[in-house]
Amino acid sequence: MSRTETPPNDLRALLAEVAAGRTSVDEAARDLAGLGLTAIGDFACLDTGRAARKGVPEIVFGEGKTVEQFVAIVAAFLSRTPVVLATKVSPGQVAAVSAPDGGAAEWHERSRVLVVRRADYRPPEARGVVGVLAGGTGDTAIADEAVVVCREMGVETLVAYDVGVAGVHRLSAPLREMTAAGAGALVVAAGMEGALPSVVCGLVSVPVIGLPVSTGYGLGGRGEAALLGMLQSCSPGLSVVNIDNGVGAGVTAALIARGGAA
């Protein structure tokens, strides 16, 4: 590979160039100073090295971005990385995105997650199992966000929905299945009072990620009661992400199940 052919976000290639004497240490230092950063106008500075550094695909948060900004950001990532996930995406944003030649776009309507892949995309090595549970049907969209993230990270995902504490006996069969499959972590999404993650955590021997969801009635019904209930849990081994943060729950569970980013 010649000096000019070295992709700026390919650390291994850059180090090989230095080792072969085709790139000086000073030149490599300048490349590293900007490694994985791409600026777009005055509204975005993108970290395009995250997948290589963390084992987590790039994830774009759609809300708050104009259609034009969203399209520009997705296109910039795809020029440097083979796959991009976007969450909290509107139908207008989805309609405006075009997959690269030979690539594909996959729209998960319920979770509002868009996955865009280049033709040269290769999925990560399959490793690990995560279980995802949701208390009620109203919690499934956010739980699905975690499911998509886990699967895009190469983790097998088992799902059990509408198994909340109002009928806690519904938990028995899915927990047996997830345990038998060797799930390394569980994501438990719940709105209302958010009790389900504490119950699940008291029954299993693996880490549980509590995912509070903004479903419920009146005071505390936007996820606040669920969040506070999970944070106050007396069940050890329960960690909690922010309200409706399916991405954070999915990434954390997948990294645990995979044993890290490698």
Tell me what the structure shows.
The structure is a single chain. The chain has 262 residues and is an alpha/beta fold. It folds into two domains: 41-117, no CATH class; 129-258, Rossmann fold (3-Layer(aba) Sandwich). The protein is built from ten helices and eleven strands. It has helices spanning 11-19, 25-33, 50-54, 67-78, 91-96, 140-152, 172-180, 196-201, 224-231, 246-258, and strands spanning 37-40, 44-47, 58-61, 83-87, 104-108, 113-117, 129-134, 156-161, 185-190, 208-212, 238-240. The strands form three sheets. It has a five-stranded parallel β-sheet with strand order 8-7-9-10-11, with helices on both faces. A four-stranded mixed β-sheet has the order 3-4-6-5, sandwiched between helices. The chain has a two-stranded antiparallel ribbon with strand order 1-2. Helix 1 (11-19) packs antiparallel against helix 2 (25-33) and helix 6 packs parallel to helix 10. The radius of gyration is 21 Å and the shape is globular.
Give the key terms.
single chain; alpha/beta; 2 domains; 4-stranded mixed β-sheet; 10 helices
Helicity, as a percent range: 25-40%
Tally the helices: what do you get?
Answer: 10
Radius of gyration computed on alpha carbons: 21 Å
- What is the N-to-C order of secondary-structure elements (H for helix, E for strand)? HHEEHEHEHEEEHEHEHEHEH
- What is the architecture of the largest domain at the second tier of CATH? 3-Layer(aba) Sandwich
Proportion of residues in β-strands? 15-25%
Distance between the termini: 25 Å
**Structurally, how many domains make up the residues?**
2
